[in-house]
Design a protein that fits this description.
Blueprint: E1 2-9, E2 14-21, E3 28-35, E4 38-49, E5 51-59, E6 67-76, E7 81-89
Antiparallel strand pairs: 1-2, 2-5, 3-4, 3-6, 6-7
Length: about 90
Amino acid sequence: MRFTLGHHRVLIGHQVTVKVVAASGETVARVVAVLDGAKLGDDRLDPAEVQYERVFEQAGGAGPGQRHVLVVTATNDAGARQTASRRWQDVV
């Protein structure tokens, strides 16, 4: 699977974008996104899909120097999981 994780700061929190593209011959059955330890989403795809994309508006908090960790775990149709993360620090 290929992950694309993005973010940008908005008036309240962040806008977080999660995209997962299945490898050849597999599909995406579930995607769980967690920002700073809080679950943003837990999407079960039925039927499973070859691509998943979701935007989370006003996610988490923001402030000068605050550090963030976005962790995304995708499960394929066979039950195998893969995880990707993105880390950043808010600009002062």
